[in-house]
Write a structure and sequence with these properties.
Number of helices: 8
Strand content: 25-35%
Shape: elongated
Distance between the termini: 36 Å
Radius of gyration: 33 Å
Length: 296
């Protein structure tokens, strides 16, 4: 109930709304649920503007809720440079989420000595390394990346010589016209670039080695080109067809051949396809980590 003797009734309403939240937030901090408390303090400030020492407690809750993560890539025999680039892409994707609770580090910058012993050849985690990351480096979890089925193919440009006919219109001395189909050779080219990758991850607590979340994602990208070239007047070029060794004009194939003659001749590089795949896969992983709440 509102005290009628209280001069500012509005203040009482503010207190009635926010005091329970304020007390609950303090309780959550004591329970280690600092992220939850941060949002509760934030809700109080959004409602009241100022309330007791809420601003200070909110800042303390944020510091308490910080969740430092070290990103670590399992060693690979091949494509080492690509694995490094994917790890960099993952770190960048995580940082770009602007999650105020996450602090992202690569393992090399945190503790280079642990890179070779954090995970053994059988994929088992070294408990002593996890404890060291927790106690000495204040890392709460390690994001372990593992690469599988990495396929990077830069196709060769294939050339096929084809038989066709250049249609020529001939006018005689009397002004009459006739059509002459001149048998010629033209070239068709094809090429495909392809990149595919499967990457699995797991977020492991440095406190007890528990796998907090894990998943595996696959993606592939390819680009194909197919085009034709001819040194003469391409608008007059028709494909040829053979029947028992006798060549004739394939009228029905004119539009398809004209399309090839005017087709794109530039192919997306494997480096471009790789960047697109890395961006997609690292983005999925970053989204999972960003949405992970260690208090739930």
């Amino acid at each position: 109930t509102v005290n009628p003797n209280f001069k500012d009734v509005k203040v009482q309403y503010i207190e009635a709304r926010n005091e329970p939240i304020y007390r609950q937030a303090k309780t959550n901090v004591e329970k280690g649920k600092c992220r939850t408390a941060y949002f509760e303090y934030e809700a109080i400030l959004d409602d009241a503007g100022t309330y007791k020492d809420t601003k200070t407690l909110k800042d303390e809750a944020l510091a308490c809720a910080e969740y430092p993560i070290a990103v670590y890539s399992r060693p690979v025999k091949h494509y080492t440079a690509e694995a490094i680039r994917f790890e960099e892409s993952t770190v960048n994707s995580l940082v770009n989420r602007n999650n105020i609770f996450l602090k992202i580090f690569d393992m090399t910058s945190i503790n280079r000595r642990l890179e070779n012993r954090l995970v053994n050849g059988n994929g088992e985690l070294d408990d002593a390394s996890l404890r060291e990351l927790s106690n000495e480096d204040n890392i709460k979890a390690v994001l372990i990346l593992e690469y599988k089925d990495f396929d990077k193919r830069e196709g060769q440009l294939k050339k096929e010589n084809q038989t066709g006919f250049e249609r020529q219109v001939i006018k005689n001395t009397e002004g009459e016209t006739s059509v002459y189909d001149k048998k010629i050779k033209y070239s068709e080219y094809s090429r495909q670039n392809r990149v595919a990758l499967t990457v699995s991850y797991k977020l492991v607590s440095t406190e007890n080695g528990e796998v907090l979340i894990s998943d595996s994602y696959s993606e592939s990208e390819k680009d194909d080109i197919r085009y034709a070239t001819y040194g003469g007047d391409k608008n007059k070029l028709y494909p040829g067809k053979s029947n028992r060794g006798t060549w004739s004009v394939d009228e029905s194939g004119y539009r398809k051949l004209q399309s090839l003659l005017n087709a794109n001749t530039e192919i997306k590089s494997v480096e471009y396809l790789q960047r697109e795949i890395f961006k997609e896969l690292s983005g999925r992983i970053a989204s999972d980590i960003n949405n992970f709440n260690p208090e739930k």
